[in-house]
Amino acid sequence: MNILPKPQKVQVNDTKQYVLSYDSQIVIDQTCDRAVYPYVQMLQASMKETLGYTLAITRGSSKFTAVTLQMNAELKAQQYTLTIDEKGVLLQASTNEGILYAIQTLRQLIKEYGAALPFVAIDDWPEIDVRGYYLDVTRGRIPQLSYLKQYIDKLAMYKINQLHLYMEHSFLFEGLSEVWRDDTPLTANDILEIDDYCAARNIELVPSIATFGHLYKVLRTQKFRHLCEMPDLVDDAFGFVDRMEHHTLDITNEASFEFVTSLMAQFIPLFRSKKFNICGDETFDLGKGRSKSVADEIGEQELYVQFLAKICTYLVEQQITPLFWGDIIVNAPENLGRLPQEAICLSWGYAADQDDHSVKTVANAGAKQYCCPGVSGWDQLVNQFEVSFENIQRMCQYAKTYQAQGLLNTDWGDCGHLNHPDMSIPGMIYGAALSWNQATTSFAEMNEKISQLEFENVSGEVVAILAEIPTKWVFKWRDLVNLKEDRLEAVDENQIDAIQAAIVALTDLSKKIIQVTPKLDSTQRHRLLPYLIAIDGMKLLQELGITLILQQKESQFSNQGLSERIEEWFMAYKNSWREVSQESELYRIQEVFFWASDKIKEK
Questions:
Q1: From CA 189, how far away is CA 176, in angstroms rounded?
Q2: For site-directed labelling of 457, which of 163, 225, 264, 317 has its Cα 20 to 30 A away?
Q3: pTM higher than 0.85, yes or no?
Q4: Residues 6 or more apart from 208 whose CB is under 8 A from it?
Q5: Which amino acids are annotated catalytic?
Q6: Whether residue 346 sits in one domain with residue 301
Q7: Residue 224 domain-assigned (yes or no)
Q8: For residues 344 and 370, is the Cβ–Cβ distance under 8 A?
């Protein structure tokens, strides 16, 4: 039985079956709220897709009952039970969200068994109450609304109940036209539509905007550059790395707080949520520019906590719970006690061997927190699946050990959000599954289940193949970015043999993907194309690395053929990007590849 997240208690008797007949009905008991109706429609859609027919819905009772939804006040808030026996299918919960989770499990059972369902008794509940996902919709990709809705459906299927969309400059704020005029920003109408879509799937959409650091595009405009901590940097050429390292607000300027609250005032009314993620991370420039004299007097940590507390208090006064990234305050954890007690610290760490230092420190300070791992897609053409799994597994353990309020699995877009967003789905499922039930699960077992359930690959091997891809390249996207931005002086000539071996390994993986494709359901095979495109891009990067090494050694060396293949490949990459994402910052990725293409044409 392949169910993700894995239920807490399952008893199966697969020698007996209950058959869902086309002329039977789904009955919503009168104890249920009418709000569960959209959940039942999801069940109907799954039946239609898998069985070729669906069951009618009614409310109250029916002599043709096959599936019954019923409230049971004795169950915990997110707990549900699912029973299949000779009487039919009975789903029980004490809340609407519990009913939804029961339905999601039933949908997975139907996907695996079809209409002939085994007798089963499931009693299930999550180990971590808040199971969130954090999606960067700023630094590279802004998803098309249609794709984002599909992604939200995935979150709901795997019982994730919170979503944050990270924004720096990618929302059409009034008065910020100079910020978004050359972009494809989300609008208020988009947010309202997304919020409704999430709410119908029991997902809390939490607003999240940069309010301290990471205001690169805002602080380079003519209108707002006077608020930049480091005014000498505002006219520097764009750089992917520079964008992450600089452009913090000068918080000694009262206009900075007014600016931040003006954004919040526009954003808050668009959301049902009574939470607000103010970010506040990586304020690298703080105390080094316009605020230096104040920082010299009171210290950077004091400067930081005063502004953070001011924003948090502003929100709490409006009965909104503030959330913030904890990377700065964890260095002076005594300051956590100076924030409103409602504030939630987001303790993050993304390494495969991530330790518990930050989480433990925040817990010992008595503060509320979420543990925040990641899907490890930043700087990658294909996500690092194994790094992600190990990281998420550890952070889920820390969340349980230190009694965190939630888990927030992050999907960042550093250096352009190069990876196709579908490639984050395995990492998203790792987070969903392990935050629900931390029962011992190996990387291989999890990937086999995801292969079968998500990719409809009966042999269960496709995710294991995909997981190999990011382990094979040597000359990487970040190397090329660093080279273009003068952060990497040269390519190490000692890597030539390893780079050549990487090309061979990546070629072999392309063959494996092509061979496994027929083993996927025909409706899922298209999902492997972005991986094939990514592998070709990685191979071109390896060739580019070798070419740049040789060009360093031989001044007359050039490779016109490689340049053309990079340019031809990028057209396929662009087409893949445009299928799911708005144009956004695609041009910035293009600039890096074409810079490299032109560079190797030089003699």
A1: 17
A2: 163
A3: yes
A4: 134, 164, 165, 166, 167, 276, 277, 278, 279, 323
A5: 282
A6: yes
A7: no
A8: yes
